[in-house]
Design goal:
By secondary structure, this protein is an alpha/beta fold. It has helices spanning 8-11, 24-35, 53-57, 73-83, 97-102, 104-125, 160-180, 206-215, 235-250, 269-277, 305-311, 319-334, 339-368, and strands at residues 15-19, 39-43, 87-90, 130-134, 186-192, 195-196, 220-222, 228-229, 232-233, 257-260, 267-268, 285-287. It has a domain at 9-202 and 233-267 and 299-320: Rossmann fold (3-Layer(aba) Sandwich), CATH 3.40.50.720. The strands form four sheets. A six-stranded parallel beta sheet has the order 2-1-3-4-5-10, sandwiched between helices. It has a two-stranded parallel ribbon with strand order 6-9. A two-stranded parallel sheet has the order 7-12. It is globular and about 55 Å long. 47% of the residues are buried. Pathway: Bacterial outer membrane biogenesis; LPS O-antigen biosynthesis.
């Protein structure tokens, strides 16, 4: 299958509901959808922190009608009734492992009950024909063996965040059978690997913490330098979400869940930081001799073969390019370049990579037929 690319002609004028549009991935996805001409309605809490990507990419005025807590079923239903979406991307979540330990009750309320509220509202309104619910690579029962997980592996979790996202998968599976199949609405979950890229300012995330430390000439304290994760640029899984939504809308036979991750092996925290440090002056690190803090999986890897087979989704950027693009974004942002210009440049570069990859596959296929 040729490289999967979202079709701008498909998205032009489509009514899309995007929950979590004020977050890091949500802000990027909102930018991409609107660039293709989609009519996007958001549903989220206001951006967190003194700095957010949403502030730099989108009008704050739109929040007047798009702020709601997904734990509030009545508010969610009201917004969905107004949006009457044809396609839904559910990204709103409590997405931080350490915050899950600090507030397990709130984490379950957002990730499980909140997902139920969104799906119930979408079902009642009845206009949607495709729903993509994002979960995480951490939904799998992980014995730290390092084997790459496939979608049929058992779900589980050893921390409140992972447990809540595994439970979210069960909510989606239940609603698929009880509400959406008979209504002709396709629904699938998207399990993405560790995402990096310009514009993420969240606490307790590797590169945002590094940028904050290095920008003030401080040393970065690294809790688990040997931990391995499936790192990828934020635009990689977003491309997968868009293509998956198109295929769900078309009604073709698809799986109920897809992994989106790099085609290469997972890389250690230490290696990613070494790549990032090469792009910064005076990038110092204090590597913990022993893991600190509550339990987190040591080894994590995904097998993205199903998304490659069904959707044509393969990695376009290797890890070194992913880190270089991310570091460039932050360095230029710290130098005063506006977020919209930086995101536009990264988006254009990524689309060019995708078009060149697709062109190469077409030439290879034509050569094979001679």
């Amino acid at each position: 299958m040729l490289v999967g690319l979202p079709d701008p002609a498909f998205w032009k004028g489509k009514r899309v509901l995007l929950t979590g549009h004020t977050g890091f991935k949500g802000s990027w996805l909102l930018y991409w959808l609107e660039a293709m001409g989609a009519q996007v309605s958001g549903l989220a809490l206001p951006p967190e922190g003194p700095v957010s990507l949403f502030d730099g990419l989108h009008s704050m005025g739109r929040l007047a009608g798009e702020v709601a807590d997904i734990r509030d079923a009545h508010a969610v239903l009201s917004l969905v009734e107004t949006a009457r979406p044809e396609i839904v991307f559910h990204l709103a979540a409590q997405s931080l492992v350490l915050r899950g330990y600090a507030d397990p009750v709130g984490t379950f309320a957002v990730n499980v009950a909140g997902t139920r509220n969104v799906l119930e509202a979408v079902s009642r309104v009845g206009t949607a024909r495709a729903i993509v619910v994002t979960t995480t690579d951490k939904v799998y029962r992980n014995g730290d063996g390092g084997r790459a997980f496939v979608e049929s592996d058992p779900l589980g979790g050893s921390d409140p965040y992972s447990e809540s996202k595994a439970a979210c998968e069960l909510v989606v599976a239940g609603y698929r059978v009880s509400h959406f199949e008979a209504a002709g609405c396709g629904i699938a979950t998207a399990r993405a690997g560790n995402v990096i890229g310009g514009g993420d300012w969240a606490e307790n995330r590797l590169l945002p913490d590094a940028v904050r430390a290095w920008s003030r000439k401080a040393s970065l304290e690294v809790r688990r330098p040997g931990a391995t994760r499936p790192w990828q640029h934020v635009l990689e899984p977003l491309r997968g979400y868009l293509v998956l939504a198109e295929r769900l809308h078309a009604g073709g036979p698809l799986a109920g869940a897809y992994n989106f991750g790099p085609d290469c092996e997972s890389a250690s925290v230490r290696h990613v930081l070494a790549l990032a440090a090469s792009h910064f002056d005076d990038a110092r690190m204090d590597l913990a001799p022993q893991p600190e803090g509550p339990h987190e999986a040591h080894a994590l890897a995904l097998d993205p073969g199903l998304a490659r087979r069904d959707l044509g989704i393969t990695s376009l950027w290797a890890l070194d390019q992913t880190v270089a693009m991310t570091a460039r974004w932050y360095r230029q942002s710290l130098a005063g370049v506006d977020s919209r210009s930086l995101c536009a440049e990264d988006h254009a570069t990524y689309l060019d990579s995708a078009l060149r990859a697709a062109s190469g596959e077409r030439r290879a296929a034509a050569g094979g037929r001679r």
